[in-house]
Design a protein that fits this description.
The protein is of the alpha+beta class. It is built from 14 helices and 39 strands. Among the domains are: 301 residues, TIM Barrel (Alpha-Beta Barrel), CATH 3.20.20.70; 89 residues, Immunoglobulin-like, CATH 2.60.40.1180.
């Protein structure tokens, strides 16, 4: 048997893998007490189910790695080894765990199936009929309200018949339907548990109850695994985060957001990043930019106080009149028709305007016939009848090529920001590759995802001052593992309508701190408008506030208006990574009020943004969260400098005209 480190061996019958013991900081919590004693995972192997109990012929060894980390190494007699690693975050009453599974023998093993990285049971005695909270993912629905980032509340009852519901993604990108973050809360709204999945591929989780016990079972992971491991082969399973909390859903979400920002968000140039200010020319004009337009827009972006400028598709060589996506893969050659002075010359000019240079790349895709396909056809998977190829990040050679590609562009152009895009569903390609051999279903996906992580980790380690944004036809690849590697996420390609953008930000803030939530103001003037309504800009204040479109054509009055909103955003953005409290139910129509509070509980300061949409109600009464009842707070509108004082225990009234908003910064006196 293969073991390493110091530790102790226990007989399997002792069943030492108990997830509850790895988060005993939550022992007083209702859902911790309701959780069955089990390792949190299960799979099928050699006609046996491993988990929640461990079969008799398995041995188990505990290894203390220090710094709150522990490993349990399970060994089966014929060579299958499972490494269960857990990290506790006691200050957040949370635990994170994952599996690595290895063949330590010299022969192919029996197939591994039914791999559930999460397999938990909560007793109904403590929780009765819990509410399940979840969020839609980041697609691009052009209607209001969109399903994207809409918060759902569901109660799964089992009075007579067994019941079940599922959360999942589609096509192999991790938030291409549901966001892989969810929570359970008791019927009284006094206790809960949140969970997150770290897997940047295909996942599915089911929630089920049956009428006899009424217990709630949560199980899932990568669907349909049927995998015989080869000698020495090791795979990684999805990472799971579980945290327990007291209070309502807002308290649980804020505990999760603090954990994600302080322990998961990667540093940028040695410190945790705040939401950024990024100009992106793609929105409205897409690939029609050239060097003249890019220079003019960069100059305008500098005047607005934008910190980064992204050069989007068609900076690379194009074949004739082909659309931009048919030249993806031509990374080694620049488009000297559109950029006759070269990309470096443009990048130098952008920096001269006080703006960092950013670049769009899509390294995971290559069109048939492009330079990458010509040079390394063996790296690319093409489906029958499809010229849109998937570059296989499961191959070590591809990983090294991708590292060199990013490194070369960083050094060549002094890139400080990458938009890493991914505009295809990879699951059909992975399944197509897995057909070549029996009992290998899942290996292409696992190797690909591991390679994606390896490249992203390498970029951050080698270039810690370069900001990484994850884009996937919108926000279709947001999960616990990408949060660990990227500084910002493009939430949705539907970025034009302020009401939809505000809805996205409202919903995304429940589970994610604001540094991740990137949107671009790219509205156009309508009819006889001479300036944009202020509510348009203010709808973007809840996330990383960027601009798009033809800034060079804006009037001085429009530029001054936009600059003022950017100044207000920068004065308030540090609150976006603090606590978040929605002040209204997430609207399901525009006949409503909308708004949120962003609160720093330590400094006792923050801001609120409130919007009257098409509601006939002309005023609302607001009672803020987290304020000290006996303290006095000063409220100030940063646009008008209107100031008033209010006790923390008191509500106050806001009167607004239709289609207007108000922003109020506050601090304790």
């Amino acid at each position: 048997m293969l073991f390493w480190g110091s530790g102790r061996v226990l007989k399997a019958q002792q069943n030492p893998l108990d997830l509850k013991t790895r988060v005993e900081s939550a022992a007083s919590q209702t859902f911790w007490q309701a959780l069955a004693r089990q390792p949190g995972f299960s799979f099928k192997y050699n006609d046996q189910t491993v988990g929640p109990t461990i079969p008799a012929k398995w041995t188990t060894r505990e290894i203390d790695l220090g710094a709150g980390k522990k490993q349990w190494v399970l060994q089966e007699t014929d060579g299958l080894q499972v490494i269960w690693e857990a990290v506790e975050y006691p200050e957040y009453q949370s635990v994170e765990y994952t599996l690595r599974i290895k063949n330590t023998s010299s022969r192919d093993l029996a197939p591994l199936t039914g791999l559930r990285s999460i397999d938990l049971t909560f007793a109904a005695t403590n929780t009765r009929d819990p509410v399940i909270y979840s969020s839609g993912g980041g697609t691009d629905q052009p209607y209001y309200p969109p399903d994207d980032f809409t918060i759902h509340q569901r109660v799964l009852r089992a009075d007579v018949y067994p019941t079940q519901m599922a959360l999942e993604t589609r096509g192999g990108r991790s938030s291409n339907k549901d966001l892989p973050f969810f929570a359970l809360e008791d019927a009284e709204g006094k206790n809960g548990v949140y969970m997150a999945i770290g897997w940047s591929g295909q996942w599915r989780v089911t929630f089920s109850r049956e009428p006899h016990s009424r217990n709630l079972k949560i199980a899932g992971g990568i669907p349909d695994i049927d995998l015989s491991l080869e000698p020495g082969e090791e795979i990684t399973a999805p990472r799971i985060l579980i945290g327990f909390y007291k209070g309502g859903f807002a308290e649980g979400c804020n505990q999760l957001r603090r954990l994600l920002y302080r322990r998961f968000t990667p540093e940028l140039a040695g410190k945790k990043p705040l939401p950024l200010a990024v100009y992106d020319h793609w929105w409205v004009y897409e690939a029609s930019v050239d060097e003249v337009a890019a220079r003019a827009r960069a100059a305008a972006a500098g005047k607005l106080g934008q910190e980064y400028f992204i050069l989007e598709p068609e900076w690379y060589f194009e074949r004739g009149d082909d659309p931009w996506y048919k030249s993806v893969g031509n990374w080694a050659q620049e488009n000297r028709v559109k950029f006759p002075s070269g990309v470096k010359s443009l990048a130098d000019y952008i920096r001269s305007q006080g703006v960092n240079f950013g670049l769009w790349l899509e390294p995971e895709r290559a069109w048939r016939g492009t330079l990458l396909d010509q040079q390394h056809h063996e790296w690319i998977t093409f489906l029958p009848g499809n010229d849109d190829g998937l570059v296989d990040f499961g191959l070590p050679a591809v990983r090294e090529w991708a590292k060199q590609l990013f490194d070369e562009k960083i050094r060549q152009y002094d890139v400080k920001y990458f938009r890493w895009d991914f505009n295809t569903d990879p699951l059909p390609y992975w399944d197509f590759k897995d057909q070549a051999r029996p009992h290998r279903k899942g290996i292409s996906q696992i190797r690909y995802v591991e390679g994606f992580y390896e490249v992203a980790d390498w970029i951050r380690a080698q270039h810690p001052a370069v900001a990484l944004e994850a884009c996937a036809s919108g926000g279709r690849r947001i999960d616990l593992e990408t949060l660990r590697r990227f500084h910002a996420f493009w939430l949705s390609d539907e970025t034009i309508h302020p009401d939809i953008v505000r809805h996205h930000l409202d919903g995304a803030h429940y589970f994610l701190p604001g540094n991740y939530l990137y949107r671009v103001f790219a509205e156009r003037l309508q009819g006889s408008e001479k300036q944009f309504p202020d509510i348009y800009f203010q709808s973007f204040l809840g996330g990383a506030f960027g601009f798009g479109g033809g800034l060079e054509s804006w009037t001085p009055e429009m530029m001054a208006q936009a600059k003022r909103h950017v100044e207000v955003y920068k004065s308030l953005r540090h609150f976006l990574v603090e606590d978040y409290y929605p002040l209204f139910e997430q609207p399901r129509s525009l006949n409503a009020w909308d708004g949120a509070q962003y609160h720093d509980p330590r400094a006792q300061e923050g801001f609120v943004s409130v919007f009257r949409l098409d509601s006939p109600q002309s005023s609302v009464e607001l009672k803020l969260h987290g304020l000290q009842p006996g303290a006095t707070y000063e409220f100030r509108n940063p646009y008008t400098n209107r100031v008033f004082q209010q006790k923390g225990s008191k509500a106050f009234t806001l009167d607004l005209q239709r289609r207007t908003g108000e922003v109020l910064a506050y601090k304790r006196l």
